[in-house]
């Protein structure tokens, strides 16, 4: 199965790196063309002491650390925690991305993700890309359940790349899931499931052969 064009759907800046960062690093290393669409820069949730648009800068730096080309990054300005109010324009933008990018594989939040913005992107993503291969990524603090039905084997260098990308999010540094221990321990746990040192796990939403 070819995965030449890969699209990451991130409700907020940093979701893509958290859920797929190691996999992005590996696929770019192998020559894939990776696109990243972030639907909210969460200006209303930025901690005090930071510029309101800081996450726009941080996602540019983080995705560059993973090897994503600047022209492959799409940043939208939908208001955090209110993406469900903009379902139709979000869906229409996804349809445009599908038409123009022609992705072979789409990564999006799990359909079981309970965050309202993540749920919106997952549901509209399934509508827009229903004829495309789709994998749901895990953000375990938002998943009451998660089916580990697909895995990507990773090397330590891919996890280092993921962690270095997350380090660009200075405004989010206090969150537990940004820590090196968390990034590596989750990847090690997923690796144990398939008999390798590190991995990222995904839910199969759509798989077309």
Q: Share of helix among residues? A: 25-40%
Relative strand content? 15-25%
What's the N-to-C terminus distance? Answer: 7 Å
Task: Please tell me the overall pLDDT.
Answer: 97
Going across the biggest sheet, name each strand in turn: 3-2-1-4-5-7-6
Count the beta strands. Answer: 7
**Helix-strand pattern:** EHEHEHEHEEHHE
CATH topology: Rossmann fold
Write up what this structure looks like.
By secondary structure, the protein is of the alpha/beta class. It has a single domain, classed as Rossmann fold, CATH 3.40.50.10320. Helices cover 39% and strands 21% of the residues. It is built from 6 helices and 7 strands, in the order βαβαβαβαββααβ. Strands 3-2-1-4-5-7-6 form a 7-stranded mixed β-sheet, with helices on both faces. Strand 4, helix 4 and strand 5 form a beta-alpha-beta unit. Helix 1 crosses helix 5 and helix 2 packs antiparallel against helix 5.
Write a concise keyword list for the protein shown above.
single chain; 209 residues; alpha/beta; Rossmann fold; 7-stranded mixed sheet; 7 strands; globular
Summarize the structure.
This protein has 209 residues and is of the alpha/beta class. The chain has a single domain, classed as Rossmann fold (3-Layer(aba) Sandwich). It has six helices and seven strands.
């Amino acid at each position: 199965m070819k995965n030449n064009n890969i699209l990451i759907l991130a409700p907020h800046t940093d979701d893509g790196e958290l859920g797929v960062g190691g996999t992005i690093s590996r696929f770019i290393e192998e020559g894939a063309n990776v696109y990243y669409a972030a639907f909210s820069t969460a200006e209303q949730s930025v901690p005090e002491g930071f510029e309101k648009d800081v996450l726009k800068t941080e996602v540019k730096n983080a995705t560059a650390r993973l090897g994503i080309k600047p022209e492959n990054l799409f940043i939208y300005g939908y208001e955090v925690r209110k993406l469900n109010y903009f379902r139709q324009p979000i869906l229409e933008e996804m349809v445009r991305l599908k038409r123009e990018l022609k992705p072979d594989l789409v990564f999006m939040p799990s359909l079981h993700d309970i965050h309202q913005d993540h749920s919106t992107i997952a549901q509209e993503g399934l509508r827009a890309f229903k004829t495309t291969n789709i994998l749901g990524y895990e953000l375990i603090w938002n998943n009451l359940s998660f089916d580990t039905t697909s895995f990507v084997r990773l090397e330590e260098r891919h996890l280092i790349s993921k962690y270095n990308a997350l380090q660009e999010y200075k405004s989010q540094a206090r969150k537990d899931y940004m820590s090196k221990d968390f990034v590596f321990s989750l990847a090690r746990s997923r690796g144990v499931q398939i008999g390798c040192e590190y991995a990222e796990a995904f839910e199969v939403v759509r798989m077309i052969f």
